[in-house]
């Protein structure tokens, strides 16, 4: 009798496991089917997706610009990759699929063009910006510009391969704080710190991270673009708008990239979006985010 009860329990457990397994398999199969349906549904939307690599300082304005553009061009989907211009250049050189490159400096675009990766005749200077020194309004900093940056307790600074970091190094060199050198981008954070009397410097990968470090209060001051202060007017104080005589012109060029993965339809859509960046409608939006149109 005990043996029959034991066997009965084993049989019940076996049946339960089989049933549960069938139920789980059915659920997984159903979810897999839904995922496949969703994936294929996305593939069949008929939209043309274009990949646009943008400098980190363009992130917010370009998000709104894409939304604006897609309303009048529902057949187009714009996907952004935002980072420092130096990082984006490296990614394109390594073969990342990209249709448009929108850089925060001429240096990276010059290199891309030298590599033969720019579609001939598509390069345009789109925007102009300005380097600024910022701090939190409650920081009580003694710094009022690059000239006395050494008075800061801590500084957030983009690396030399990042345009904002390069412009800062150029300005400090123009002021005689840093020694003249052929390759400003090669000036390390440690060298900048030493030139400023040993002040603590937190090196950041892009200008958005510099902004965040200052806005969060982890660094007393930092150098960003004037456009980066959009939306932070109540939180940040612009201590100095750095003269173009010190930085050189801060120009944002854009160009269509020779994307081997793009078909004729995608290439055409990329060209049309690039043309839109130069339109009066786009210029108006850029200006609302504190950018200026580049000189004709």
Structure description:
The protein is of the alpha/beta class and 296 residues long. It folds into two domains: 48-128 and 250-293, 3-Layer(aba) Sandwich (D-Maltodextrin-Binding Protein, domain 2), CATH 3.40.190.10; 131-241, 3-Layer(aba) Sandwich (D-Maltodextrin-Binding Protein, domain 2). Helices cover 43% and strands 21% of the residues. The chain contains ten helices and eleven strands. Strands 2-1-3-10-4-11 form a six-stranded mixed sheet. Strands 7-6-8-5-9 form a five-stranded mixed sheet, with helices on both faces. Helix 2 links the parallel strand 1 (48-55) and strand 2 (76-83). The longest helix is centred in the N-terminal third of the chain and has 42 residues, at 2-43. It is globular and about 55 Å long. It starts with a helix and ends with a strand.
Summarize the structure.
By secondary structure, this protein is α/β, with parallel strands linked by helices. It has helices at 2-43, 59-72, 85-93, 106-114, 163-174, 189-195, 207-215, 244-247, 264-276, 280-288; strands spanning 48-55, 76-83, 100-102, 124-129, 131-136, 154-158, 200-204, 221-225, 236-241, 250-256, 292-293. The N and C termini lie far apart (98 Å).
């Amino acid at each position: 009798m005990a043996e029959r009860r034991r066997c009965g329990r084993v049989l019940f457990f076996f049946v339960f496991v089989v049933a549960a397994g069938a139920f789980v398999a059915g659920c997984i199969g159903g979810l897999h089917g839904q995922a496949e349906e969703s994936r294929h549904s996305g593939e069949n939307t008929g939209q043309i997706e274009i990949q646009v690599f943008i400098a980190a300082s363009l992130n917010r304005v370009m998000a709104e610009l894409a939304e604006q553009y897609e309303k009048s061009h529902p057949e187009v989907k714009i996907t952004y990759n935002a980072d420092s211009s130096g990082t984006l250049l490296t990614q394109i050189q390594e073969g990342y699929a990209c249709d448009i490159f929108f850089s925060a400096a001429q240096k990276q675009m010059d290199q891309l063009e030298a590599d033969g990766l720019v579609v001939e005749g598509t390069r345009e200077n789109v925007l102009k910006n300005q380097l600024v020194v910022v701090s939190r309004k409650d920081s009580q900093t003694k710094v009022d510009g690059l000239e006395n940056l050494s008075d800061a307790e801590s500084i957030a600074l983009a690396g030399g391969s990042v345009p904002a970091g390069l412009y800062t190094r150029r300005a400090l060199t123009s002021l005689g704080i840093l020694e003249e050198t052929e390759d400003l981008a090669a000036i390390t954070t440690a060298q900048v710190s030493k030139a400023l009397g040993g002040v603590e410097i937190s090196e950041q990968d892009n200008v958005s991270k510099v902004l965040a470090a200052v806005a969060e209060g982890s660094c007393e001051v930092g150098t960003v673009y004037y456009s980066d202060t959009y939306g932070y007017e109540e939180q940040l104080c612009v201590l100095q708008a750095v003269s173009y005589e010190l930085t050189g012109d801060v120009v944002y060029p854009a160009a269509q990239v020779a994307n081997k993965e793009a078909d004729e339809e995608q290439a055409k859509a990329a060209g049309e979006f690039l043309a839109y960046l130069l339109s009066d409608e786009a210029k108006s939006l850029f200006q609302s985010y504190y950018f200026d149109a580049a000189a004709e």
